[in-house]
Amino acid sequence: MRIRVLLGAWFVCIGLSLLLFLLKTVGEESSGSKADHSDEQLAANFSPEAAAVFHKRCGACHTYGKGVKVGPDLKGVTERRKRNWLRKFVYASSAMIKSGDPTATALFAEFKQQRMPDWTDLSDKQIDGILDYISIGGPDIKPIDEYDAVTATPTDIETGRRLFNGETRLKYGAPACATCHAVRDDMRGGSLGPDLTGVYFRYQDKALTAFLRQRCSEWKTGAFTSEYLTPKESFAVKAFLRNIALQNRASVPSAEAGGSRR
Ligand code: HEC
Ligand code: HEC
Asked: Is 8 left (phi over 0), alpha (psi -120 to 50) or beta?
């Protein structure tokens, strides 16, 4: 009996230290190499919308792990404070200071040069999104679509092919790429948009990632559409386009063939 309890405790310990280790390794850049699995999972939970709101609304006064700016460093704030307190504070810190909340008034006294604005135009969901983003170490995580397509597995490429052709539906209901685009060897592609066979090399990884953050028809306006592709879909489609471009290069006898793998 006692042995079983001990064994159980031992497993919990191992589990916890593993978890801590995984959390610690997140954020260490692994560009170029195959991203480790946990890293990918965290990156998949990454919300581009929360990231955008955080950088736009909070970044001017708060750092994440780089110390006090105008307000306190927000790294670890979701451990320092209760979720409920954070929700209320972010929504309307002025009301909390007025009500005499001890933590809020202490912060206010400490950072007296500037006061945190209220964010009453943010919904509960948006505020929770920002808090989740902070608690998973968001600002340190590279979103999955930013991984170089060179790290993609054959499964990723196949996923990308299916999304491109519409065999798998895009999560937010956008029309499949093949509605408007053809790639080599695929007669089914549409012709409203340009042929994408070589586009991966023309854009290169980073620029293509940025391009895929908006719908094709909106990219010129620079509008940020949070509901177009998930970071995972974007990564898969990018991997597919890279693969097509590589295949095409290999079949065209030219000085460039097989060229610049990054
Ligand atoms: C204009 C500067 C400014 C902006 C922009 C700003 N804050 Fe703050 N923030 C502060 C200041 C200053 C404090 C300290 C309390 C005070 O004086 O009001 C603070 C405190 C906080 C705290 C409490 C920190 C702790 O240690 O308990 C949280 C959480 C917080 N801000 C989150 C946010 C979030 C989320 C955003 C974006 C939606 C944001 N802040 C935008 C200035 C800002
Ligand atoms: C409704 C039609 C439509 C759909 C669906 C569509 N695109 Fe496009 N796409 C276009 C058009 C039109 C252009 C040309 C835009 C321009 O140059 O202003 C374009 C341009 C592009 C370009 C730039 C091509 C170049 O040569 O510069 C890429 C890359 C691209 N699309 C990728 C995709 C991917 C990946 C998908 C699927 C996730 C997709 N598109 C879905 C219509 C579409």
From this structure: alpha
Residues lining ligand 2, judged by CB closer than 6 Å?
Answer: 175, 177, 179-181, 192-194, 196, 199, 211-212, 216, 229, 237
Tell which one of 64, 87, 101, 116 to mutate to probe ligand 1, the residue whose CB is within 8 A of the most ligand atoms: 116
Side-chain half-sphere CA neighbours of 227 within 13 A: 4
Start-to-end C-alpha separation, the chain: 56
pLDDT of residue 113: 79
Query: Which domains, and CATH codes, for the chain?
Result: 47-140 (1.10.760.10), 144-251 (1.10.760.10)
User: 0.85 exceeded by the pTM?
Assistant: no
